Structure formats: C-alpha cells, structure tokens
Fold this protein.
Amino acid sequence: MNINMNTKKTPSSGIIKKQRLLGAAFAAPAALLVLFATIIPVAWNIVLSFSNWSIIGENSFAGLTHYMEVFANKAALKTVWQSITISLVASVTAMILGTCLAIMIYRVSRLEGAFFRFLFYGPGMLPMTVVGLLFTFVLATDEGLVNNFLKLVGLANLTSPWLAEKGTVLIVIGLVQGWRSSGTIMMLIYTAILGIPESLRESAHLDGASFITQVRRIILPLIRSTIQMAFSFMVMWAFKTYDIVWSMTGGGPGDLSKTTPILIVEQAFKFNKFGYASALSLVYAALIIFVIIIIRKGLGGETYEY
Amino acid sequence: MSIKMKRFFARNPLHIWVFRLVLVVLALVYICPILFAIITSLKTEREFYSNIWALPQNIRLENYISAFKVGKIGEYFGNSVIIAIGSIIPIEICAVLLAYAIARLKLPKTELILIFCFAIQLLPTETIIIPLYITMSKLSILSVPYMPMILAYAGWSIPGTAIIMKNYFDTVPSELLEAARIDGAGEVTTLFRVMLPLMKGVLATCIVMNFTFVWGEMMWARTATIVTTKGIPLTVGLMNFKSDLGTQWPLLCAAICLVIIPLYLLFLFLQKYFVASLTAGGVKG
C-alpha cells in the first residue's frame, strides 16, 4: 500500500482542472448534437402536448385537452390496439423462432452452424422498408409466392389476399417483422449458450440426461437473463411499427393496419395537429416503457451464477 | 452395423438429424423470398406473368438498368451513401471524444452522464420528430439537402456509440496511458497515437451498428424530405418508386435486389463486426 501511495503522486489541483477543461471541450460537440437532436425536441414535445400550436405561429395553452382527446378518440385507441397486436405477434414469433434456432444451431457441427447462422441472421440487417416491400411481393394476391405455392401443392382454398383482409393483415405484418428479427434474437441467445461451461452439460450427459432435459433443466434456466434482455429489446423494436407497416400496407386496407406511429405522423404533418400528435406520441412512449417494465418484472427472478 | 457406423451414430444421435432436417427446411423458408425476388428481377414482365416459377430464359439486366435510371434508384443510392458517410464520420469523432472524456478525463458526474446516455436510447423516435421538424424548418435546415438526416442521426446515435467506446476504454490498462503520459504525451496525442490504433475492432463494430441504423431508417427521412425532391435516401425513394410502379413486379424486384445484394456482400465480409455490434449495444435500431 505504502509503495503505491509513494509512486502514485496525487496530481495537483491545477492538472485536474486542466484535464476537466479538456474533458469538457472533448464532450462539447457530442453534447451540442445530442442537445439539438434529442433533448430539446423531447422537452419541446412535452410542452407542445399541452398547447395549441400551429405553423402560423398562434400559440395558446391547451391544458389536458389533447390528452383527453387521445383517450376519447376511438380511432386513436384503435391504432394503439393494432400496434400492440403487431408487436405481440412479432415478439412472440421472434423469441420462439430465435430460441429454437439458437439451440439447434448449437447442437449441429461447427461448420454447419456457421452456415446457418449466416443464413438466418441475414434478414436482420436488411432495412425494414426493404423487408416490407419484399413481402408485399411475396404475399401479393395473384402473383405472390405464398399463394402460388399453396396452389401448387393443392391447397388452393387456403390462398388469401393476405394484406387486404381484415382478419389476417395485422398478424401477417407481425409475422414478417418477427421473421426479420428472429435472426437477431437467435444470435443473442446463441452467444449466451456458448458462455455456459461445457463441464455442466458434460456432467448432465454422463448422468444420462437426454438433450431435451438438458435444454429444459440446464440451458434455458442458465440463459434466463439473456432471454429476458432479448425479449425487452425485441418488444422495443417491435413497437417501432412505422417502417414495416408503411412499406407493406401504408396503414390499409382502410385503417385496418394503421398503427400509432403512422397516425402521429399523419396528424402532425398532414393535418397540422401538432399538439394532439405530441400528446399521442407521449402516451405511446409511456405504453412502451410500461410494457418493458412489466417484462423486466415478470420474467425476473433468480439468476444463477456459474 | 460396422464399428465405424456405430461410432458415427453415437456422435450423431437421432435428435441431431431431426435438427438438421428442421434447419434445412427453415433455411429454405428464409432464403426463398430473396431468391424469388432475384429470379423475378431477371425476367421480363411477360415472362413473369406467363409462369412465375420459370427461370428466366436468359440473364437480362434490363430491369436493373431501368430501375437505376428511370426509377432513380442510382440517385437515391448515392444520396444514402452521402448521408451514411456524412453522419457516421461526426458520430464516431464525437463519440470517441465523449467516451474518452468520460473514461479518462476527470469529468464531474460521469455516472449521471452514462445513465443519461442509456435513458436517451429508450425514447421512441416518435416523441422526437415533431419538434425536430419544427425547429429545422424554422432554422431553414430542411431545405439544405442531406442536412436534416445527418444532424438527427448523429444526435441520436452518439450516446449509444459513446457507451460502447467508454466500456472499451475501461478495459485498456491504465499503465499504458501512464507510460504515454510519462513520455510527455498530451491527452490529445495519447488519444490519437495510443488509443485509436488499439480500438480498430470496436470502431468497426460501432460503424457497422450505426450504418445499419442510418441506412434503414425511414420515418424521419420521409418526414424530413416531405417538401423537397432533393437528397431523398434509398428507403424513401424505394417507397416512391413502388407507388409509381403499381405492380410491375420484375422492376420492383430489381430495385429491391439493388439494395439487398450490396448489403449481403458487406455482411459476408464484415460478419464478425455485424455480430459484435449486436452484442455490444444494439439498443437503438
């Protein structure tokens, strides 16, 4: 201890001050950009949601009217419901597919694993818009891959105008989004499985546990915290429903797949109802944060040290 | 059964074969949409409508050429490249400086700054774009091509990128920096001469992460280019192209492939960094 104290001279306050100044200078450009692009807009968004603001410059205090409008407006609540449906389908699809893929890839040989990882993770790096456009083509009523495939295998009665039907449109969009994200989830979970010490599985194997038992009793409990983290990321991504919905249906048919982000942009930039749109966006943000907290609490529990 | 066979089956029990089968089937499902688009993009419209399953009679790139020229996909592509480069350079510079300041230069309240950086990433973009649009229109930034996207993407991406870099700086042994300091190097020299060469991997990871976000973002890009025809990025351009086209699928497929193929090539070469970017941060995007 003593030696340490002697060699590490405490720097004089002058040097600390100089370092701090330099530190502030280093942080300044980042701080300015973040202030301009994030902090000021968010603060202003809160102010906007309480005021009547129009592009001409009229400005008056509106109190809670915009919020009341959000909760009284059936159309707005419907978009929230539709966003939740899409995100739910997408999250569940991605989590189940991703986890199963990760476990299967872990079990096959290393070379095969690398090949399949590349293949399954691929869609995850494509922009949502491109994925959406690709699937408008795949799901097209007459020329689409899915309907033509169904006809080919003799299930013509199952063909459907997937993106133009009330019952299917939300679920199909959710499935596409889940498909796109499943590779990402797979990668997160696969990395976690690799972190489990081989000795644990080895000893289970020697005790005669089948692979399914190993998965249920060893792998899944040990990667619980990763699954929880991946799930909350996934929900956060899934609620960003603008790109995928806009590129697949544009909110249609009618308003049947219109999600809250689309409504926000439309209200603000088409109808100039900035205050209302701001209030709606804050309600939506609160909903997302609420859902994530529930997931964190609900899936929480003991984590194992290993 | 010969001993060799027995050994083979002991190493490859039944469930592995089931897994292989399932993986191959799923792989087909995953790759089919993309293959279908590539094949369609090489056909003429008449070929496509006469038999959607048939392979193209001969490889023709007409669709690509007309998507590139008539559909202006080439122009949009260029715009996206400019926006990506224009935002990634300031993002990395600002994030490196900020991370270094947090990690090494006794800034006060670093804990608070870090928590703040995390919190910012949780905010949905929807809560930001309306006031940002108003601000930029008042400051007449909106009419400057590329600028609205560059400023917004930089501001949104810096906090997350800085967190990743700061975590990396924490792992660099401080003896190394002490040595540089004793040799008389100032902080700026230390950062650029000692740190930067060490952090190539992290930097690549961050660039890939930021690139995937910037390249794919559409909500803000569409909002910010609502009133102009200049500087429209690829995501928005593709949507415009689609609404002009109606159902000329071969042409649209060519446009889609023009986006997908370069990305897959990039992915093939930089796979390591794509995966690392996922586990490093991956909050925004």
User: Anything to note?
Assistant: The longest helix of chain B spans residues 73-104. The radius of gyration of chain B is 25 Å. Chain B has 14 helices and no strands.
